[in-house]
Design brief:
With 81 residues, the chain is an alpha+beta fold. It is built from three helices and three strands.
């Protein structure tokens, strides 16, 4: 299943994730720090969605209270809901 999420409080404008049988098949950020978001997606691809959420949730960027990894965790939660 492909899912699109509009992140809040970060530079990225959109997160697209594909989840199949609780495994992250693909991940893509639109906007944001391209190298960092590419790295995040490369790391979570093939990962169990619950493991990824546990690792990414709550990461803060510059005192914003959120970050691109944290927003990805929120996108994944919505994708599996």
């Amino acid at each position: 299943m492909k899912y699109r999420y509009v992140p809040r409080g970060v530079c990225s404008r959109m997160i697209e994730v594909e989840v199949d049988n609780n495994t992250i098949k693909d991940c893509r950020f639109i906007g944001g720090c391209h190298g960092n978001t590419q790295g995040i997606c490369a790391l979570v691809k093939g990962m169990n969605v619950f493991d990824a959420i546990a690792k990414l949730e709550g990461i803060d960027c510059g005192g914003r209270g959120t970050s691109c990894p944290d927003q990805l965790s929120k996108a994944l939660k919505e994708a599996i809901a």
